[in-house]
Amino acid sequence: MSGTPAREATLLDAVGIALAEEMERDPRVILMGEDIGVYGGAFKATAGLLDRFGPHRVIDTPVVEEAIVGAAIGASLRGLRPVVEMQFFDFASRAFDMITNFAAKHRYRTGLGVPIVVRGPSGGGVQAGPFHSQSPEGYFARTPGLAVVVPSTAEDARGLLKAAIRDDDPVLFLEHKLLYRRAKGLLPEGDGLVPIGKAAVRRPGRHLTIVTWGAMVPLALEGTDALAREGVEAEVVDLRTLLPMDEETVLESVRKTSKALVLHEESRTLGVGAEVAALLAEKAFEWLDAPVVRLAAPDTPIPFAPALEAAYLPGPATLLAAARKLAAY
Amino acid sequence: MTVSPEQQRLLYRHLLLTRLLEERMVSLYRQGKMTGGLYRCLGQEATAVGTAFALEEEDLLIPVIRDLGSVLVRGARPADVLRQLLAKADGPSRGRDAFLHFCLPEKGLYSGIAMLGTAVPVLAGMVLADRFLGRRTVGMTYLGEGGTSTGAFHEGINLAGVQKLPLVVVLEHNGYSYSTPSGMQCAAATLADKAAGYGVASAIVDGNDLLAVVEAARAAVAHARAGRGPFLLECKTYRRKGHAEHDGQAYVDAEELAEWSRRDPIALFERQLDASGVMDAAARVAVRAEVDAELDAAVTEAEASPTPVPDPEFRGVRADEEEVVRRRRETFVGGLA
Fold first, then answer.
1. Angle (CA) B325 B330 B335, round 5°
2. The domain that contains A175 carries what CATH number?
3. In terms of Cα–Cα distance, which of B217, B199, B197 is closest to B207?
4. Do A163 and A207 share a domain, yes or no?
């Protein structure tokens, strides 16, 4: 697809574009999921793909998350490149065994890779309640054999999803639903591949580093604007891939700023932020001028009511307070 | 579709090889040479052998733990099976997994995992892919009563039913799931009853009657290959040993065990061979001698194999692991020197 011109797109558009481009490029790519064909997906990520590629490549399934991922594993072992949609990534719990035991361990046990992608909407901020708003990346990001990707921009959603489909091993691809229509960008011409396992510095700064991903990235960037007006230059590192984590980019940033704030939407205890904090303690201890700060959701389920959810999620006020305190330490 | 005399002689060899290889395993286990548990198929060999025998060379099979016979029918070498059990470096999983958990893709043999039922959707996906790629492959996998209680089984057979996938699931009704008797596993009168809820076909066969199993399995495979959807084949058999060798099966009634010992599948097949004149006792003794010699060599070969050496780089988890390996090399403490 090197002839593809540059174009404006939302993160949701970018997902559909990446799927279509990869299906066009590689006839082995098939899609499986609930309501992805005729309906085009609960969020319309796969709209139009059934008409374009037919029912043998865009397969509507019963409500059988474990079997969908299992069938994708099997199809991948016979040479296809299946992409599975979880209607909400919360439902990946129904396929936990297939993802963590069957797919993740297969190459190690047998030498045969399982090139599947499990993708779908994750994250909160849309008042969808405890079972349609979770950020389940932490459940998977400590499983050897998986890659876990959470894009925050439209360009990354396209480039990373294409890289995930081309990857020879299982990739979990979490699309933050709050960003589906809010994150807009210019998709570059050509393939626009973004490598898995590389973080991006979204904003350079010298006083502190905010390490984050997903829908917390735009929040961090807004906070950075406010902090800049107070003379605090915060650097924003968007991890993009949580497993394997790009340690070098995080360390390079923190060795420069000497202060780190880890910002995440999932609940705090044993979240991915704990791994970032441990990494900094192990490999950047001598550079740190302050304790690493973790700003995360509290250890409760994510609630439904707007006021409750707003209090649960890290927001501009809590971020600014934490960043100011860290900057002044 | 009768089973030809030549096929019957081959079947006898497979059946005997399964029984005698397991006896070698027991011996190695008792000598402390085996790593891990020994899950025996004594008394139910005809089920795995007869069903796998109904497949064509290009077909696919995922066994569960008591389907040693199916693995041998697919062409796995006894020496390689023993290497796997002895956790050797040159075993099929290179010491990374246990017992029948290994793939020989060139023989259409793939591995399940310990979580029961998971092979059903995975094999459904394999034959879905093959159909998409224009191959006429049939997939066969196995479950006992316990496995049919799992969500993975129900989800998988449901998906296979909707997609009309060429999948044969052999339900090995062998009396016990670990220590739990059939009646405590499911209230349905037969395992084959489960097919009706998904609109798929089923049949029940005496799992200890090898020729009956072959014929029933051929019908199931033909049904699947013709595009008529998945098939559940319930084989009524009996697990004459405990869950694994450590399990003294104190929960089993002695009279029940004695009754099933009298229905041994090899003894039954030998009576049939006598009656039909297909293979007399002298011919069977000759086969036994041949199998014994093969197994002597296999044990020697497997025992002489090297044990695996830990890889200081811990490679093999993902294809794109170079950066992870490099970081581990730079920072890992507490592992290998």
1. 80
2. 3.40.50.970
3. B217
4. no
- Kind plus residue range of the DSSP H or E element containing A282: helix A272-283
| Partners of residue B107 in chain A, C-beta under 8 Å | none
Residue A205 covered by a domain: yes
Q: A264 and A321: one domain?
A: yes
Same domain, yes or no, for A46 and A136?
Answer: yes
**B317/A contact by beta carbon, under 8 A:** yes
Measure the CA angle with vertex A9, ends A8 and A12; round to 5°: 180
| Predicted ipTM of the assembly | 0.97
| Interchain contact B333–A (C-beta under 8 A) | no
Q: Which secondary-structure segment (H or E) carries A223?
A: helix A216-229
Same domain? For A183 and A208 the reply is no
Active site residues of A: 132
Please give the distance of CA B69 from its chain centroid, rounded to a whole number: 6
B324 reaches A (C-beta below 8 A): yes
Element (DSSP H or E) covering residue A8 = strand A7-10
Across the interface, of A67, A71, A101, the residue whose CB is closest to B115 is: A101
B169 to chain A: which residues are within 8 Å by CB? none
The position carrying tokens 């290009």 is: B58
Give chain A's domain count: 2
Q: What is the pLDDT of residues A250-296, one digit of tens each?
A: 999 999 999 999 999 999 999 999 999 999 999 999 999 999 999 99
Residues A177 and A209 in one domain: no
Q: Does B134 touch chain A (CB under 8 A)?
A: no
Contact flag B318-A113 (C-beta cutoff 8 Å)? yes
Instruction: State the pLDDT confidence band at A5, using cuts at 50, 70 and 90.
Output: confident
All structural domains of chain B, each given as residue ranges with its CATH number in brackets, are 5-306 (3.40.50.970), 313-337 (no CATH)
